[in-house]
């Protein structure tokens, strides 16, 4: 399985651009996001032919994800040559955040860190 790591986030007026390295022309956005609790990561699935490439948003990236969760905007992925819109990014992130809150199936550490970093998001729900 191929993985991509986030190198940087760029926030412009109504969009976010995530930079990475190694995009390929065959890669497309799946519109799906999962977690990798062992790696403390949210993972956006990139389709690449008959397999997925995992775009990892590691713990160091969660502050930016928190900002996206509070002010939804389009999210794009680029390596400087190719650009892919990460469709359904905010919706998938919100869905995971709802699922994670208080859910020990994700592991205590992952849940605690999520609830801490995304505290403002959770406060908007009450």
How would you describe the overall organization of this protein?
The chain has 126 residues and is an alpha/beta fold. The chain has one domain. Helix content is 29%, strand content 38%. It has helices at 62-70, 89-100, 108-117, 119-124; strands spanning 2-5, 8-12, 15-19, 27-36, 41-48, 51-58, 74-78, 83-85. The strands form two sheets. Strands 1-6-5-4 form a four-stranded mixed β-sheet. A hairpin with a 4-residue loop joins strand 4 and strand 5 (41-48). The mean pLDDT is 95.
Low-confidence stretches: none
Structural class by helix and strand composition: alpha/beta
Proportion in helices: 25-40%
The average pLDDT value, as a whole number, equals 95
- The percentage of residues in β strands lies in 35-45%
Count helical runs.
Answer: 4
In which order are the strands of the major sheet placed? 1-6-5-4
Pfam families: UPF0738
InterPro entries: UPF0738 (IPR020908)
